[in-house]
Amino acid sequence: MTEQIEHNYPMELPAGWTAREEQRRVFQEAAHHFLNPDEDERKRVVIIQAPTGMGKSGVAYALLRLLGSGVVVTATKQLQEQYRGDFPDMPRLVGRGNFDCNMGSYSCEKGYYIRAGEKRSRSYCQDCGYKAHVDAAFSALQYVCNYASYVHTSQADPSQREVVIFDEGHRVESEIMSSVSIEITQDWITRTDASFPDSSEEDDLFDWIEDWKDNELKDYYSLEHAAERDRIRSAISYMLKTRDKLRWVAQGNVQGMGKDWVSFKPLRLSRYLSESVLNRTPRIVILSATILDPAELAKSLCLLDSEWAYVESTHSFDPKTRPVVFLDGSLPVVRSSMDDAKGFLLDAIQTIMEEHPDEKGLI
After folding, report:
1. pLDDT per residue over 3-31, tens digit each?
2. How far, CA to CA in Å, does 138 sit from each of 141, 155, 159, 261, 318?
3. Which residues, other chains included, contact 239 with Cβ-Cβ below 8 Å and sequence gap of 6+?
4. 165, 287 in Cβ contact below 8 A?
């Protein structure tokens, strides 16, 4: 690969496809950042900003073919089906919940946990449709999946993938944080014969969930829910350990109406948490039509300046006429905290309106 002539990397597309000039330029620049003959100039991450209609999926496919093997990660079923339709050799990986268990009238996800709890999953799951589905995806040169499947399943892939391409890549940060977020619903409170906290103050919620984890949840056992219980306990332990470092926020909706919940979410990524997902392949492409500021995106993912490069597709308008301005500070913009944040938001909007009285814009 490193012997390729600079900016002349072979762009392979499916039969019948013809690369447009802008597609080719973006592909060549991205490929060069990965395969630069000067190893010191190579990048681990390439952030690509490309508008809708530019043909991002074609660029993604060509990079996959050039680099050898990889995964495309998207946020929606529509995009996954689009990739499958455009590239029939790219299977789609979906979750266990999409399959029925062979051994009972429940989903494969629930059936697997039941059999695992019985220590009989090895024998009962040999003919599992989901297992065959995963094996087919992992044996393919490339496959497409959603963010949740990639976070929770790709570590089991025996293949050494060369690249992961995050389509709608502006969502990577929030998707990684969602993977560690915790929501305790009324169902779990009922199962463990517990009660929600009387107070919705943040410190009280943290004290409550630690006590619940170490007592009612620890003492609860059900074959059907054992694996999920262990996952929740592990997630709570991680949250308590990283509470200050990741600036976790707690919120509760406790009204006694049968649909109560409490949730805990981090406000920022750590390098460790980011790497737990991003470090599964030697190369990463972050592809999106809505990257407002690549440096801010890289910073939010805890990337070092030396690790990433930016490739921008041309726009039909001059970006200088549409500047993006970031305000300092962060808000816990989540359901229960919105009322507290409204005053700050209204003041900030008023300030922006006063500073730009005769300009059109989007806040």
Report:
1. 333 468 999 998 889 999 999 999 999 99
2. 8, 11, 7, 37, 43
3. 180, 182, 248, 264, 266
4. yes
